[in-house]
Amino acid sequence: MATRRVSARLTGAVLAALVGGGLGAVALTPASAGAAAPVAAAVTTSVVTKAAAASCATGKYQKKVEGYLKQLGGYGTVTVDGKQSTADCAAIVKFQKRFGIQPAKGLAGPTTYDVAKRLAATKTSACKPKKKGITFCVDLTNQTTWVMKNGKLHTKPTVTRTGYAGYRTPAGTFSINKRTKKEWSDPYEVWLPYWQRFIGGRGFHQTTTYIHDKWRGSHGCVNLLQSDAKLYYSIGKIGMTVKVFGRRPGT
């Protein structure tokens, strides 16, 4: 009986702490202690859920980002209403983590909006890949890239950063002609992880700086996030086709 009284007092204290002054303190008897446990759990879940939603701020581009994420799919349930919810926040955080957007806290800010918009605007059919084999596609206009296999989408579009003004990445059809897991760049004195060269001194490689820093750009290479650079390297082989089309804004 002593155990049941302690349990009742603890449950009542938990409920009182959770509901604060809204419902008032809850007095429980030993007989009601068992029934109160599910109530306490329900109130706890409700409070935690509301706290999580409150901690995730609503960004300037909330509704637009919700719309793009719903179009892209794969990030969870999103309600396109411009109001931040726990589910919206979780989806935005997942999207931000996937594409290396910092900080990944669910705020629909300008970088998240820009990345989502570019990915949503990407038309994979515009690459016009080879009907057989692998084709690496680079859309300079939207600053996105993806892989086609036998004329069909093999990897979904992801973000890239190509050459900025004065170092424009050329459009055209090329072939991978050199591959090394870690290439040293003499001109810029930096290591280029997962290097796959396709024309001159330009190729795919993991970015060495924050990929969403547009003003820096690259010196003509196709910068990738680490996960994408590793994936591209695992797919790539000497002689595979690379199609680069469009033009990066401002170049």
Give an overview of the whole structure.
One of its GO terms (biological process) is cell wall organization. Pathway: Cell wall biogenesis; peptidoglycan biosynthesis. It holds the Pfam family YkuD. The protein has 251 residues and is of the alpha+beta class. The chain has 3 domains: 54 residues; 58 residues; 118 residues, L,D-transpeptidase catalytic domain-like (Beta Barrel), CATH 2.40.440. The protein is 36% helix and 22% strand. The chain is built from 6 helices and 9 strands, in the order H-H-H-H-H-E-E-E-E-E-E-E-E-H-E. A 5-stranded mixed sheet has the order 3-2-1-9-4, with helices on both faces. Strands 5-6-7-8 form a 4-stranded mixed sheet, covered by helices on one side. The protein starts with a helix and ends in a 6-residue tail after the last strand.
Percent range for helical residues?
Answer: 25-40%
**What is the number of helical segments per DSSP (H or I, 4+ residues)?**
6
Largest pleated sheet: 5 strands, mixed
Instruction: Write down the oligomeric state.
Output: single chain
Q: Write down the overall mean pLDDT.
A: 85
| The CATH fourth-level homologous superfamily of the largest domain | L,D-transpeptidase catalytic domain-like
Strands ordered across the widest β-sheet: 3-2-1-9-4
CATH topology description of the largest domain: L,D-transpeptidase catalytic domain-like
Rough outline:
globular
- Overall strand count: 9
Range of strand content = 15-25%
- Corresponding CATH architecture of the largest domain: Beta Barrel
CA gyration radius, whole angstroms: 26 Å
Distance from first to last alpha carbon:
79 Å
| Structural class label | alpha+beta
Uncertain residue ranges: 1-33, 39-54
How many domain regions? 3
